[in-house]
Amino acid sequence: MKHIFVQDRFYITMGVIIMIMALSIVWAPLMTVSLIALALLLLYVIYEIWVLRGIREELQIDRPLSQRYALGDEQEIAYELISESSQPIRLRIIDELPYQLQVRDMQLELKMEPYDRQQMSYTIRPTRRGEYRFGQVHLFIERVMWSMVQLRVSHDLSGSVAVVPSFIQMKKFDLEVFGRSPLSQGVRKVRRLGQNDEFEHIKHYTAGDDVKMINWKASARRNELMVNQYQDTQSQSIYAIIDKGRTMKMPFDGLTLLDYAINSALVLSNIVLKKYDRMGLLTLGQEVDTMIKDHNSGSQLMRISDALYAQQTDYGETDMEYLYYLIRQRVSRRSLLFLYTNFEHRYDMRRALPYLRQLSRLHVLVVILFTNRELMELGSSSTTEYNDIYRSTLAMNMVVEKEKIAQELMAHGIKVITTLPEELNIHVINKYLELKARRVR
After folding, report:
1. Which CATH fold would you assign to the domain 1-164?
2. Tens digit of each residue's pLDDT (9 = 90 or more) over 150-161
3. In three state form, how does the secondary structure of 136-200 look?
4. How far apart are CA 260 and CA 221, in angstroms?
5. Cross-strand pairs, 4
6. Angstrom distance (rounded) from CA 67 to CA 71
7. Burial class for 83, CB neighbours closer than 10 Å (0-12, 13-18, 19+)
8. Least confident of 50-54, 181-185, 377-381
9. CATH 3.10.310.40 fits 167-191+233-437, yes or no
């Protein structure tokens, strides 16, 4: 009986019967009418329970789960229902979603016709990496006509899914960079300066080829014009360096800055490796706990993805001095370094500045700073209330402070990207393509 739930219609009918019983005090025959109505109601409820138990055996549901979900992206959970019953029914679906989603109102309702088959879906947005456990799926079944009770049927469709750095964004920007036409605004083509500088092969001259590339010795041997063909310099070393200090725990739209940096590092790694450059990874907090040497092998992207999956902030102060000495010892060739960090005050930046300057002398350093949209909107808002003016002034001071941090870094020859968290991928990819096109090394 614990799987049977009485509907509101049952209580309304019982209320009417009780009212008739009360009126029997005035007119005695109404007591007989009310008892007959009560007996019919109980018989109908018993009949309906018997029918619903039969329908339960004729109803199937499936909820296929992917092996992994992408962090921070909207994804669908699909349900497939098959009814082999000859009666129309109404269904309410309640799924035991993972606790990380913090969803307490998940509920789907639908009507199924006799011998019907339907598909429904529910959208989730994982905001934490790790293992997500899905539990049972509960179906609440009721008849369409004059339903007095519901029957709960539980299906054990439990399973685990790994939420990993966003492979959806990785594929999206892969198409934008390497596709013939960009799918969205942001990733831009950069005009190349100079000529390609890595020899590839000698080919026959065709109209439009640069006459400066004519190979006169080869032309003399073949008795026809031959030109040298060059390609972009490849195998440049790129490192994504992710700060895991306490400032990277700051949340934006459900994700922390660390999660945005992790997603961006995966997107950048995919683009770099497809450009035939060498990609490496460093993560640091109070010490460097992950270092993957730069390489361009086929398995490098998987190694980076596996390493990014396990990263967590240590809530400490980032040791830039240790980072500098480690890179100086372990990274021998001049590389392009993308440092994902977040300085909120110039005092914090100036403590790290000596080591950042030393890194920029050894390598091409790009420091990525995050801006806060809410602070920008609050700082630019107009108000006459004293408290609101105070908050607006503080917000504007914080926005200006971030701009001064970026200007001071650039004054010391360090390249800087200031971006909103949701626009991080676009700006990082554009900066990589720009530096590669301009041959900045």
Report:
1. Immunoglobulin-like (2.60.40)
2. 999 999 999 999
3. CEEEEEEECCCCCEEEEEEECCCEEEEEECCHHHHHHHHHHHHCCCCCCCCCCCCCCCCCCCEEE
4. 57
5. 151
6. 13
7. buried
8. 181-185
9. no
Q: Count the alpha carbons within 13 Å of 176 in the hemisphere toward its beta carbon.
A: 21
**25 vs 23: CA distance, rounded Å:** 5
Alpha helices in 61-141 (DSSP H): none
**Any idea what DSSP says for residue 439?**
T
CA triplet 250, 253, 254: central angle to 5 degrees?
75
pLDDT at position 117 over 70? yes
Cα→Cα distances 423→70, 156, 385, Å: 17, 40, 33
How far apart are alpha carbons 8 and 4 in whole angstroms?
A: 13
Q: What is the C-alpha separation between 433 and 238, in angstroms, rounded?
A: 12
Q: Do domains 1-164 and 167-191+233-437 have the same CATH topology?
A: no
Q: Is the pLDDT of residue 298 over 90?
A: no
Domain boundaries, the chain: 1-164, 167-191+233-437, 201-231
Q: Which helix (H) or strand (E) holds 80?
A: strand 75-83
The pTM assigned to this predicted structure is 0.79
Using CA atoms, how far apart are residues 325 and 288, in angstroms rounded to an integer?
11
Provide the β-strand partners of residue 142: 90
Residue 392 · residue 379 · CB < 8 Å: yes
Lowest mean pLDDT among 32-36, 102-106, 406-410: 102-106
What's the one-letter identity of residue 203? Answer: K
Token pair 């990874």 is found at 281
Q: Evaluate whether 340 touches 368 at the Cβ level (below 8 Å).
A: yes
Q: Secondary structure of the chain: what % helix, strand, coil (to 5)? A: 40, 30, 30
Instruction: Tell me the C-alpha distance between 212 and 14, whole Å.
Output: 97
Q: Which two tokens stand for residue 212?
A: 């400066």
Who's near 262: CB < 8 A, 6+ residues apart? 71, 129, 165, 242, 308, 311
Pairing of strands 364-370, 335-340: parallel
- The answer to whether residues 214 and 205 touch, using CB atoms and an 8 Å cutoff, is yes
Residues written for the chain = 441
Return d(Cα 236, Cα 295) in angstroms, integer: 10
